[in-house]
Amino acid sequence: MRYSGLRVIKEALTGHRGWGPAWRDADPKPDYDYVIIGGGGHGLATAYYLAKKYGKSRIAVLEKGWIGGGNVGRNTTIIRSNYLLDGNEPFYELSLQLWENLEQELNYNAMVSQRGILNLFHTDAQRDAFIRRGNAMMLNGADADLMSTERILEKYPFLNVHNARFPIKGGLAQHRGGTVRHDAVAWGYARGADQHGVDIIQNCEVTGFRIEHGKVLGVETSRGYIGAKKVASCVAGSSSRVMEKAGMRLPIESHVLQAFVSEGLKPVLPGVITFGAGHFYCSQSDKGGLVFGGDLDGYNSYAQRGNLPVVEDVCEGGMAIFPMLGRVRLLRMWGGIMDMSMDGSPIIDQTHIEGLYFNGGWCYGGFKATPASGLVYAHLLATDTPHPTATAYRFDRFERGLMIDEKGMGNQPNLH
Amino acid sequence: MIIHHPILGPRDSAEFTYLGDANLIHRPDWQAEDALAQFTDYGYQRKNPAGVHRELWFHEQGDRSWLVVTRNTVTHEITKVELARDVARAEGRDT
Ligand SMILES: Cc1cc2nc3c(=O)[nH]c(=O)nc-3n(C[C@H](O)[C@H](O)[C@H](O)COP(=O)(O)OP(=O)(O)OC[C@H]3O[C@@H](n4cnc5c(N)ncnc54)[C@H](O)[C@@H]3O)c2cc1C
To answer: Do both A62 and A151 map to the same domain?
Structure first.
């Protein structure tokens, strides 16, 4: 069924009895050509592009819970392509371009809102670094705009630019960045994949791999054995747990990141602001809630909930530049498990086991990557060659000393 | 989280910084024939278990000692805290 304005009117007049489910709740078949583990944004996007763009069939997405219950439904929905390094920027810019056409592509309202993102800086050295990043972005075809404090105040008059420790000296803006309705991304890709014949199988946890003579034959699941020519892991925060079942250790640690939503307010914040130095970032959802967050809690965790010191730290950071926040009440807070890689950048690669592929290491920035991650992973699965924008995301970059470390933090996952 | 420091008693975990897996105590031998493989593994590969994890915490805003904390990564429950120095010696490290 195609969605359209006309359809909404027709359904309104006929009591909304014509809407069917957006995708089938499929049962597993004995075997597939492609089994994708993980029904998050990336897994669903991979299935979609594999079927639609690469014309493959006999594809299943196996999800241990319900689709969209992982990080794709827990993130703070920011999209951007403001990276410095060559290994990253073309990939994220491809992703931003895919976002710009996503709703037409999927015939689904994902509420892509290019309201702009602004990274604040506070010192001369930081300004230099931001200018350099802006130039790198523009060289890769992205947009970047260095904004003075005066221009920032025109758009965000409530900012406290005179904080004693971190006075705001300007910012780097990417006006094409913004936010997207995260659940709708999972649902839209699920619907699109389903329409191209993909089986989306929920409540189906992968519990092991059947591997013989260095080749994967299929996966053991809570709903029985499923054979597969190719198996593609795409489980974000659960990456180490799943790949361990294939005998692999990964350059990844799992960490908890918390996020917060305030009560609904009238429109006050027209874009996304990040105050990196103060460990705080914020946007306002279309429902009116301020959506904000800060740093990782900083220790290995699979708990999907964090602790109070970070709550305090985030709120202090917020108050430092947004004094107007002081009377706003917090509505909800939650945590998600991040697949923090050793250099802060993702891995999209074959493994040493034939037919077994891996996508993970997204840290706290994988939502914006969803469309491109799906596309390049589908490319890898279909052609056994990396997509031109993802050639750097290899497993062996650590051994070869070719880290993609945007912030130069070294092999310390909780600092990326 | 409260970390029961073996010398100082119960301390807020916010006083500490976190390094990671306690196996980092055992730095490979740089003269070994497979030193590159060993160092790649040491520097970059992690077990990252869901469950009991032995990990290094540094009491940065306290007595600046390194601790080995045994903690469950699913529940955040801490079951054991030792001085990293004692652990390193007991596990055969001499320097
Ligand atoms: C608080 C928070 C804020 C964030 N903010 C942003 C942001 O503003 N911008 C941004 O770009 N990114 C952000 N992120 C990061 C982003 O959400 C993730 O990087 C991204 O969603 C990960 O990809 P995914 O959607 O495929 O993951 P998920 O949705 O987590 O999908 C993985 C799926 O695999 C399933 N799974 C796990 N194990 C198994 C198994 N054994 N068998 C079957 N299925 C399994 C899980 O149930 C899950 O549904 C944020 C994350 C968090 C937690």
So the answer is: no
Q: What is the CA radius of gyration of chain B?
A: 14
Return the DSSP state at B28. Answer: P
**Is the Cβ–Cβ distance between A358 and A326 less than 8 Å?**
no
Q: Which domain holds residue A241?
A: 23-78+182-251+343-394+404-415
Q: Which positions in chain A have a beta carbon within 8 angstroms of at least one beta carbon in chain B? A: 240-241, 244, 249-254, 298-303, 307, 309, 342, 398-399, 411-414
Find the CB nearest B50 among A249, A302, A413.
A302
Q: How far is CA B68 from CA A196, B18, B60, B75, B86, in A?
A: 52, 10, 14, 18, 9
Number of domains in chain A: 2
Number of structural domains in chain B? 1
Q: Provide the token pair at A239.
A: 């990456």
pLDDT tens track for A31-59: 999 999 999 999 999 999 999 999 999 99
In chain A, the percentage of residues whose pLDDT exceeds 70 is 100
Domain that holds residue B21: 2-90
Q: Tell which phi-psi region holds residue A408, choosing left (phi > 0), alpha (psi between -120 and 50) or beta.
A: left
Residues A286, A357 within the same domain: no
